[in-house]
Design goal:
Helices cover 39% and strands 20% of the residues. With 380 residues, the protein is α/β, with parallel strands linked by helices.
Length: 380
Amino acid sequence: MSYAAPSPEEVLRKTRAVGQYYGFAPLSVSTARGKGGAKSAYPETLSGLTLDPRAEQVASFLKHCRDAGLEPNPRAPLLLWHTNIAYGRPAPKKIVVQFHALGSDHALADALVIRTLSALAEDLFGQATRLRVNSMGDKETRARYARELGSFFKRHAHELPEMCTECARRDALEAAELALKEGGTVELPAPTDHLSDASRKRFEDLLEYLEDIGSEYELAHGLLSRGPAWGETCFELTNDSGRVAWGSRYAELARHFFKVPMPATGALIELTSEKRTKLPSAPKEPSVRFAFVHIGDEAKRLALSLAEAFKHARLPLSQDIGVESLTEQMRLAERRNPTYLLIMGRKEALERTTIVRNRLTQEETVLPIEGLVARLEKLA
């Protein structure tokens, strides 16, 4: 379902700002890291698959990535945002904003996408969102769960609408969605009860990240994803109007577009614009005052929390949380030409401090995380 939105210009401005805080770059800018290839058709392997509307949006995004020659990998994953609105062009009535993490198999990628989408949704709709999260698991898990659902529908055929039991003969997951929609009194089996060891570990890691960064969530066993595109974690954001964003891991879909298996997580916000207004020309990019580089798992957890604090203080910050290499983070940070670098290694993370380097004078100061934003506001 689509929801009324702020003006397209405001959507674009807020998407860019939120993306920068959490380390997501617009696809158009990030193509500079790729080789830049010619436009091509969709992979032939997709021709026999039926994709739902969300999967079609993601497939279009992946095609743009492939055409741009982007080649994310675990050492240099890509955190990207993409939208169908652009400065200087008429905005469509249906606006789609996407955030994606490509190349990272770490649960941090899921947490990043979720936290960034939550921040953007709250900015766009002016109210807090509620996070519902589930895991459908890997191929092994989904096959096991489908078999369990098939047995479930046979055992409870007399307690369920006839349409559900008939549908279960074709597709047990579709029947489960139908049963949930009909609001039956019989509780369906939970996908998380059938997770493989690897899927269970991934899901537990995600929940630990969400708890560490203070993101409240609800375990939603009735939140299902099906079809050839989706797997593992799925989630949605809701507010008083209903669902405002939906996301999932989609390695099965991504593998059609890249030469190697590609871990991937993505999410979409769909909004409705009242009319096809033309956006003004692109404004001048604001200067980046602070760039944050970090190494180690604990530092990246703190980076997520600090992004929240910087955003609430309206203090511009850029970072690349998904990039492991300090050298690559430094290269990307230098390209943005910030006034100050914030540097956090494993030692600083354990001590809950960060090094603040003035790039003009090369002077360095060690500051505690507690009260950091308030101190930096005086520099800004």
